[in-house]
C-alpha cells in the first residue's frame, strides 16, 4: 500500500466516527467495521444530521483546545499558555532547552487539527445539497466555516508550513493519489478570511451559550488581518465588536466574575462548556473532566507544620506544574491593580486546618519554603469552586476568547493606523477596569506589558510575541524552568522553535512534505 493510500485510509477510519457525535471513542471506532451508508446519509443529507455534525465540531474543538485529563493532549494546550516570557514550568515537560524533543504534543495539534478540518469540509460541501431553509443552512455552514478558518489560522501560526485542503475525505476519493506540498501562505489566509467573512455575515450577535456568534467571528477575523499586517482591516473588525452592545467588559466591582463559576456574561466571546451529568469524556456533549484547574496552583497543604490542608479556597487537589514567573509579577502595581489579587491566589496564606491553634491566622513565615510544588505565587483564572476536594478533575466551563483581548488588539490595530486617540481609549478601558489610571501615550512596550497583566497565561501570548518577531528574544529573557528558587534557569529557545515540527509520522505518510528547519 503506498503512502497516499495509507494516509487517506487513516483519515477515512477517523472521519465518520468523530462526526456521529463521537458516540464511540476513537479507539473503539477503529476496531469496528466501517459505518454504514445509511448513517453517512443521515449526517450529510438531512438538516438534523448536519446539525449533529456541527455539534460534534464543538466537542472536537473543546478537546483540541482544552482537552480532558492529562498527557500529550494537555501538554499541547499548556505549552501555549506557559511557554512564554510570562511562564515558569516546574516539571512535566520542557518546551525549550538542550533536551528539547517536541515530538508528541506538537503532533497532536497537527493531526487533530486536520481531522477536524476534514469534518468541517464535509459539512461545508454537503449542506448546499440538502433541502432546507437557507437561513438554517447558512447558520450551519457558518459554524463549520468558523471552525475551519479558526483552525487554519491556528495551524499556520504554529507550523508556518501547512497543508491546505478543502475537499472532504469520502469513500469515493479516499484512495486517490495526491502530492503533499506546503501551501502558499497567501492562499491559506485567503481561505481563512473567506471562511470568517461568511461567518460574520451569517452568525447572529446573540447566540446560545457556548456557540459561535458574530462577535468571536469578528475577533478571529481581526487577528487574521493583524497577521497579514492589514491594519485598517483589523481595526474594522475589532471596532465592530467594540461598538456593538452585545459584548463588554464586566464592571470593576464584578472583576472576580470574569473567570467565575458562571461564564455566561458579556465579556465572554466563546466558552467551552462542560457538564458532568451529560459528560464523562470529550466525545460526549458534556465533555470529560479537565486537570487545568489543578495545574497552576501550589500544593500548599504539603507545607510543613500541618496548618494547611486541602481546601477549595486554595484550589483543592493541586499539581503545581506551572506558574506565573517573577517578570510577570514585576509588571503589577501590587497595591492598586485589582487583577493582582483577583486573577491570582493570595500570597499570604491563612491557616485553614481547624485543628490548629492558629486556625484563621496568617501562616507563620517559617512555615513557607522555596519549593514551587508547595508554595509559589499562583494563577487563579482556572479556579473551580465546585471541584471536589481529593480529585484533580474539573467540569468548570472554560473562557477561551474574551472581550478584554478584543480591546487590546483593537488598541494595537488603531495605533498602527495612526489613531492614537482610539488606541488609548481602548487600552485604558482595560486599565481603568483594573483600578488604574490610563496611559497618556501609547507605545509597543506599554502595550505588551498591559496585555501581559490582563491576559497572562491565557491562549494568546505565544502567538502575539511570534507575530511581533520577538518570541525568541523575550522567552530567553524571562521564561524559566525550576523546582525551587535555588535552581531556576533559563532554558534557551532556539530561533527555529518559533515554528513547531511537522509530526514525523505524518511526513513519513505524506512522503513529499518537508520537515521544518532545525528539527
From TrEMBL:
Q: Keywords assigned by UniProt?
A: Cell outer membrane, Membrane, Signal
User: What GO CC annotations are associated with the protein?
Assistant: cell outer membrane
- Among the Pfam families in the record, one is SusD_RagB
Q: Which InterPro entries match?
A: SusD_RagB_dom, TPR-like_helical_dom_sf
Q: Which domain of life is it from?
A: Bacteria
The answer to whether keyword Nucleotidyltransferase applies is no
| Limits of the RagB/SusD domain | 365-519
From the UniProt record, list the coiled-coil ranges: none
Chief location of this protein? Answer: membrane
Q: Which family does it belong to?
A: Belongs to the SusD family.
| Record protein name field | RagB/SusD family nutrient uptake outer membrane protein
